[in-house]
Amino acid sequence: MKRILLLCSVLLTLNAFAQKFSFGIEGGLNSSTFFNQTNGRTYVGLGYTNSFQLGAITECKFGAGFFGQSGLFFSRKGSDVFATDENTGSFTTIKMSYLQIPFNLEYKIPLTKDLKAIIGTGLYFSVGLSGTEKGIDNSTGTIVPVDRPIHYTTDNEYNVGYTSANPFDVGYNLFGGVEYKSFQFKFNFNKGFSKVLTASDNKFVNDVINISAGYLFKLK
Fold first, then answer.
1. What is the model's pTM?
2. pLDDT less than 70: residues of the chain
3. Which residue of 53, 118, 169, 192 has the fewest C-beta atoms within 10 A of its own C-beta?
4. Which CATH architecture best describes the domain 21-218?
């Protein structure tokens, strides 16, 4: 009888746990650039480059409309980088791949029986995986192709063979969207705190706009 009661208790606990958690997939388009936080350093131009983000998400229901949201994503970021005078200097596109984990707090506002508005904020932590810098260098008046790998290191020395980048990126998230039944559609804004290019005199941080769609599988 004690074993039966213990088994029933475990099953009830698992059932309550399942009602609080949802798991799913999410993917979308990234439009990213670098934001220059260094005062007075304006001799380079920055532009947006497009890529994608894809991963798994999980939600935990806290109650009163509040949810905790996290996940694990493969996220591509980067920027176009060019001289303010486009007739001289370099014009390159930096593409960087990260493994990213968000830690967000969401609030869902019921609009109809099946439709909810979503607003949220939080932090993210990313680890650099790979990347490239490709383009041209015209600083000497002769066009030279640029094709360098991204080397994730805390080394701040310039190396002609690779582009040095911070192995870690930490920043904040702001997002809003809608949830229809188990589908979610979001507009996300992410901005980093960490210097991206370690060998640069400028403090470039990641600046990303993302449009995503996801689907949640409720355990019960």
1. 0.85
2. 1-19, 39-43, 84-88, 219-220
3. 118
4. Beta Barrel (2.40)
